[in-house]
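Students often ask why we bother encoding 3D structure as a string. The short answer is that it lets us treat folding as translation between two languages. Here is a chain of 338 residues written in the first language.
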Amino acid sequence: MSQASIGDMLNDKAREQMISMSNNNKNISDLKAGEKTDGFYLIKSFEVKKTTNGKQYIDIDLVDKTGEINAKVWDYSKEIETIVAENSIVKVRGEVLEWNGTKQLKINKVRGKLQDDVIKINDLIPSAPIEPTEMLSEVKSYAKKIKDAEIKLLVENIMKKFNSKLIYYPAAKKNHHSYMGGLLYHTLRMLRSGEKLGQVYEYLKMDYVYAGVILHDICKIIEMDSDEYGVVSDYTMEGKLLGHIIQGIKEIEIEGDKIGLNREKSIILQHMVLSHHYEPEFGSPKKPMTPEAELLHFLDIIDARMYDFEHALDIVEPGQFSDKIWLLDNRNLYKPTE
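And here it is in the second language, the structure alphabet:
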């Protein structure tokens, strides 16, 4: 789908008049154990699995703009699998259960969206809290702050290459910023934080900081196969065999060669992308060897962790603790009353 059609889908006021959700449709964040739901949700991922006794079932992750819930279709049939596989949006009827302290939806009926169904798509799409074109414009403004002409041209050329997909791509299939526009939002918050820290640590070469932040995850667009809703169906062949870090290094080298980028500048930028995961088990065979590379790693970690805290505490009442958050080392998080 083109960038223009995405914008029409999300912003056209005329379409807003066509759409309203089912009266019974409940936000995922409002679902409670013991309740029933009957409404539309977006399929984030699904997989046909087997129970310990060999019976097939369908494991589905459903999302709307308020959150995500795991769902099960225990009465497997090929017909139901086809419905799930061929539809991004489904209407489900089921009951909310609790399993090991986590909400889960048992689906009793499911069907695809019909032509006559009127659905407010913005209610179903988890997305960044800033309008995509506004985020893209601000990220580009940071690229313009790069003083080195070669580095600036490299960054602008690579951004231009992925421009249309940057509008909607998530930053991950699961976990942090795994929603429409998540990659831009993650990048933008890192740029804002990096700019502030550059005012504290004045010896930092901000050209490398800005370039490193913009380029460090941009090849997730090559790594993952996402639809226009920001839902990743799978990792691409390149993603499975190489990953976004290696792809990012290749982009810098290939695009750098086209413009005659100075070898040292190219290697430094490649090193920043290579080392930003810090540990070999997370994909980085080298640890940061420049202060800008070190900062890039921690900007990445900070923004991912702050997202995890915000996302987990969003559904917690003041004065209460969250469930254990696996992404944060199985910690229970507390939400202050004031």
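Translate back mentally: The chain has 14 helices and nine strands. Keep this in mind for the problem set.
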